[in-house]
Amino acid sequence: MSGAPQYLLALYIAQHRRDPPIPLGVVAEMLDRSPAASTEMFQRLADDGLVSYEPYDGVTLTESGRKHTAQLHETYVTVSWFFRGVLELDDYETEAMELAGLVSPTVAKRLAATLPCDTEGTATPEFDEPAPTVNEDESC
Question: Which of 30, 57, 77, 106 has the smallest set of CB atoms within 10 Å of its CB?
């Protein structure tokens, strides 16, 4: 896991667990990457305007970065649910992290429609991630 989407997702998740700025070591550990690799990636993401990077303080998603990563996170959650609930993969979160940046919103929406449903027609929550949204017009 070394692409920009993975770093953005890891930062997004870390910012929901603790107050920013997030130390680079936290993200590096989440992705099993070196601090040097994380520094390089976050400098590039800062150049793109997606994060605010302060050496020795950490990194924070910018407003633009939050908007971009929120959609990416929805895809990650949907893919995670699909990998766990349908494919029954053991390491579904890692696999979903790898693919989230490659899956289009259209494909994510269709995957969400294949997820197991409860009697009210919503995805059955099986773990700590929020349920992916499914269009009310569509049945699961």
Answer: 106
